[in-house]
């Protein structure tokens, strides 16, 4: 994917905090890493402030499903899985020229919290995440680069990345839950900040029209093991 459109926009619009978003598997992290090298900008991932870890999330969803389907749906909404207050504070510090010290950032590659991370302030900050948080965070962003890739392609990318450590059923369940949450969030984001969003084809890097959001997303329910009692 060419990153020229994003890089040129950031150069033209000057120092600020920019956002790069898109559904799971779209290539946000790769794009942000490449842009950091090209533009010497600070990359801040929303996932640094992810609450809990992958195992915590799995146990939470299991407990909520045992209680009720509605509780499970509420828990599966990933909007509630990040510490938005901490993210806002971090972004404000970076914008004001202060470094940020995160004691136990979440590591997406391992699904666990890792060692201390220190982010040095730069003139440009690139905020990367599938979900950006409430309007008071979105309002801090000068422009939002929304990457779009067909869901089938994104799912295959996630399969290729995770199949060595997760089963097919687990990868599919995680994908469906993230699609459910992200679709709900993007409907709101496009109402809050559509004038800031530049939609970009995540394969070519060429600007595109507003992508379709699926209308038939759903979340999977865990099927309990069959009882052996006769």
SSE arrangement:
Blueprint: H1 4-13, E1 17-21, H2 28-39, E2 42-45, H3 54-67, H4 69-76, H5 84-95, E3 100-102, E4 106-107, E5 112-113, E6 117-119, E7 125-128, H6 135-138, E8 144-148, H7 151-162, H8 168-193, E9 197-201
Parallel strand pairs: 1-7, 1-8, 2-7, 8-9
Antiparallel strand pairs: 3-6, 4-5
Helix pairs in contact: 3-4, 7-8
Description:
The chain is 43% helix and 14% strand. The chain has 230 residues and is α/β, with parallel strands linked by helices. The protein has a single domain, classed as Rossmann fold (3-Layer(aba) Sandwich). Helix 3 (54-67) runs antiparallel to helix 4 and helix 7 crosses helix 8 (168-193). The radius of gyration is 18 Å and the shape is globular. The relative contact order is 0.21.
Essential attributes:
Rossmann fold, 5-stranded parallel β-sheet, two-stranded antiparallel ribbon, 14% strand, 230 residues, 8 helices, alpha/beta
> What level of helicity do the residues show?
40-55%
* Net shape: globular
From the alpha carbons, calculate the radius of gyration and give it in angstroms: 18 Å
Q: How many helical elements?
A: 8
Strand order within the widest beta sheet: 2-7-1-8-9
Strand content bin = 5-15%
- For the report, how would you describe the main beta sheet? 5 strands, parallel
Number of strands: 9
Q: What is the element string, with H for helices and E for strands?
A: HEHEHHHEEEEEHEHHE
The CATH class = Alpha Beta
> Could you state the CATH homologous superfamily?
P-loop containing nucleotide triphosphate hydrolases
Domains, number: 1
Mean pLDDT: 89
CATH topology: Rossmann fold
